[in-house]
Design a protein that fits this description.
9 helices, six-stranded mixed β-sheet, alpha/beta, 25% helix
């Protein structure tokens, strides 16, 4: 399986040449998700050769413009491309009204249905689930209601040992049950425990997305040990007071949060436009 993050935008409130506002295209277990949709996102989608038809699930963390001002243009483009497949949007409840007002004023109508799934502020919330992947939302601490998202694979099937297939005449339909943890009784009535038949599958992958937020001390209540944690790092420690005033984080604080949840890797972003070069933020986090 794979976990792939395509960064479409890593700037904070103001777009820059070469650095767009927040947006990411996530691939996990061959499922695709768009997270946040700042201004210019659809241009970045084209630049990265991502097919618009792959975008069926869109997650909007909060209603500051740098995280959703690109959404209506993206939906409009989908309409102009004759899309008829439904789109699912996971978002604060007010976003539906914003989209409907703009469509009403422009007398617009989309060819495809939109299904809204509203975020709540009460702890961890399951938003999406299929046979391989789950997506949860959890509250962050910002100047308005804001959510993070956890993308995680479900437990994978165990791998059946090659020598077992040679040793036992196991019917093909029962191989799936064994891979899911069942024991096996051979033709002589001997019970073969599952751990003698299988080996553990590859570890499940997970990705946590924490955009605009002050550093949280209780983030481990929602998840632990993600393979990759994205955490906003709007400022350096030189502007720590500004970070506190605006409910944002410094790069050093982002790294401390990553350590507190035992993240394997840390991805920084949501950089203030005051930083033309990002070396100082990366240096702080590494420290």
């Amino acid at each position: 399986m794979e976990l792939e993050i395509c960064i479409l935008g890593s700037s904070s409130a103001l777009p820059m040449v070469g650095r767009n506002p927040s947006a990411q295209f996530i691939t996990l277990a061959n499922r695709h998700f768009l997270v946040d949709c700042g201004e210019g996102t659809q241009v970045q989608i084209r630049r990265n050769r991502i097919g618009f038809g792959r975008i069926n699930h869109i997650f909007i963390s909060h209603l500051h413009g740098d995280h959703f001002f690109g959404l209506l243009p993206l939906l409009s483009t989908m309409h102009l491309l004759d899309r008829n497949k439904e789109v699912h949007i996971y978002c604060p409840e007010s976003l539906k009204e914003i989209i409907q007002v703009q469509m009403k004023c422009s007398e617009a109508r989309f060819r495809f249905p939109i299904h809204y799934h509203f975020l709540n502020r009460e702890g961890k919330q399951l938003l999406y689930e299929d046979g391989k992947v789950q997506v949860h939302a959890f509250p962050l601490k910002h100047s308005i209601a804001c959510w993070g998202f956890l993308f995680s694979e479900k437990k994978r099937e165990r791998n059946i040992r090659k020598e077992v297939l040679k040793q036992y005449s196991i019917p093909v339909p029962e191989i799936r049950q064994i891979k899911q943890g069942a024991d096996w009784t051979d033709e002589e009535g001997n019970l073969i425990p599952n751990h003698n038949l299988t080996a553990p599958g590859p570890p499940e992958l997970s990705y946590a997305y924490c955009t605009d937020t002050a550093p949280l001390k209780n983030l481990d209540a929602f998840f632990t040990a993600p393979d990759l944690l994205y955490h906003e790092s709007t400022f350096t420690e030189a502007h720590a007071e500004r970070a506190k005033q605006t409910n944002h984080s410094t790069a050093r604080q982002a790294a401390a949060v990553a350590a507190s949840v035992n993240a394997r890797h840390l991805l920084l972003g949501h950089y203030s436009t005051r930083y033309l070069e990002l070396n100082e933020l990366h240096k702080e986090a590494k420290s």
